């Protein structure tokens, strides 16, 4: 198949998922055309059947807000026309689903049919999308898609609860490529972070408010009182300065390392003993799944789709949003002895296997075939 993938090119979960999907489909022989404004961060190396089309947004003195959506729709039209795409798969509704609708309508005039699949990822529905500034366009363009998918049962329910959706929403969970995590932990790297064999706690995100970074710091501060440990914080975003300040105030900053955005996340996950994700909401929690694939159990909030991947007492624990004391106790109970930790680590990897790329990508291929055949339209 010739498939167009539209996504955000950044470190966020939807862009990561879309890029990994494209790479997996290319490995299976499909031609993949990424359409976005920057080379996606996970799109490294050369593949004969992966193409990247950059959306350029010309500036003009009149434009206080350069019209990205118009440039995107025009690029979509050009790429679809000239590369004979069979379908367009857009990740994150805003503004991708609306731009896809525009491209579809333009091409209809030339008798070119282009089915559109919209994958909903989370904040496009639960946060930004339901804001009334965007909601009418989001609702309309989702409904105009030939197929809609959501990354968890929870997000599917949230979408029906918040928007008037007239079509079925198929759940296709986030996935992880387990093979990427088969490397042995790099001992030297572990030693740099935890020179005296301390436990390593990890959090990775875009440091937005929704991630509750202060909870991460407070949970770690509690754990540190009981268990020799270090905290590794990966990523960057608006809450980082405040988190750095808090770790100084709590006098734990010698044991907390902010390493910023990182490319080779596998190497970090495999040296970690516990992943913390106390978010206000997570439609799925791709970072938690990747951590499990690397062998790290997860202590998280029970928000959104997290209960779909965390089995309490097996591969982690969950508490209510904001229950720092609860999550601290849970973390300590996992980390307290080697035997318990080893069993949680093993269970984490077993659970990640359920969401391996080999189980999930065929679900997208099946959907593509149906949409191309017009069975769902
Ligand atoms: O919150 C993020 O980390 C970024 C965000 C995005 O859209 O890029 O992630 C969302 O999509 C991921 C992939 O489907 C999900 O695993 C994340 O849970 C989801 N984030 C939220 O719902 C807050």
Short description:
This protein has 377 residues and is α/β, with parallel strands linked by helices. The protein has helices at residues 13-27, 68-83, 93-108, 123-126, 135-144, 153-162, 187-193, 213-226, 240-249, 265-269, 286-293, 324-335, 338-354, 357-373; strands at residues 2-6, 31-36, 50-54, 87-91, 116-120, 147-150, 169-171, 199-204, 229-234, 256-260, 274-277, 298-301, 316-319.
Keywords:
binds ligand GMT, 377 residues, alpha/beta, seven-stranded parallel beta sheet, Rossmann fold, single chain
Characterization of this structure:
It is a single chain. This protein has 377 residues and is an alpha/beta fold. The chain folds into two domains: 191 residues, 3-Layer(aba) Sandwich (Rossmann fold); 176 residues, Glycogen Phosphorylase B (Rossmann fold). The protein is 43% helix and 16% strand. A seven-stranded parallel sheet has the order 3-2-1-4-5-6-7, with helices on both faces. Strands 10-9-8-11-12-13 form a six-stranded parallel sheet, sandwiched between helices. Helix 2 packs across helix 3. It is elongated and about 70 Å long. The two termini are 18 Å apart. It binds ligand GMT. The site of ligand GMT has 20 residues, from helix 1.
């Amino acid at each position: 198949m010739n498939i167009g993938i539209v996504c955000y090119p950044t470190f966020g979960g939807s862009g990561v998922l879309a890029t990994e999907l494209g790479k997996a489909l290319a490995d299976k022989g499909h031609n993949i055309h990424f359409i976005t404004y920057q080379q996606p961060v996970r799109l490294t190396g050369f593949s004969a059947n992966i193409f990247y089309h950059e959306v350029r947004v010309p500036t003009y003195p009149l434009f206080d807000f350069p019209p990205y959506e118009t440039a995107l729709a025009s690029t979509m039209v050009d790429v679809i026309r000239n590369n004979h795409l069979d379908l367009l798969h857009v990740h994150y509704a805003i503004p991708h689903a609306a731009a896809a609708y525009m491209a579809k309508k333009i091409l209809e005039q030339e008798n070119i049919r282009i089915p559109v699949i919209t994958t909903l990822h989370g904040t496009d529905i639960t946060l930004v999308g339901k804001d009334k500034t965007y909601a009418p366009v989001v609702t309309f363009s989702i409904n105009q898609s030939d197929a809609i998918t959501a990354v968890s049962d929870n997000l599917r329910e949230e979408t029906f609860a918040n928007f008037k959706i007239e079509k079925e929403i198929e759940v296709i969970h986030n996935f992880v490529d387990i093979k990427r995590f088969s490397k042995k932990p790099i001992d030297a790297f572990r030693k740099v972070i935890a020179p005296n064999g301390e436990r390593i706690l990890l959090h990775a995100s875009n440091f937005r408010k929704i991630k509750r970074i202060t909870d991460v710091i407070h949970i770690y501060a509690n754990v540190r009182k009981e268990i020799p440990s270090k905290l590794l914080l990966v990523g960057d975003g608006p809450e980082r300065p405040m988190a750095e300040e808090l770790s100084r105030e709590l006098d734990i900053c010698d044991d907390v390392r902010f390493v910023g955005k990182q490319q080779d996340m596998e190497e970090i996950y495999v040296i970690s003993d516990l992943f913390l994700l106390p978010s206000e909401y997570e439609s799925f929690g791709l970072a938690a799944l990747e951590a499990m694939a690397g062998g790290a159990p997860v202590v998280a909030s029970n928000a959104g789709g997290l209960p779909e991947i965390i089995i309490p007492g097996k591969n982690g624990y969950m508490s209510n949003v904001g229950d720092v004391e609860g999550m601290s106790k849970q973390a300590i109970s996992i980390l307290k002895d080697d035997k318990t930790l080893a069993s949680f680590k093993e269970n984490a990897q077993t659970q990640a296997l359920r969401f391996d790329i080999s189980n999930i990508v065929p679900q997208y291929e099946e959907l593509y075939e149906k949409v191309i055949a017009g069975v769902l339209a």
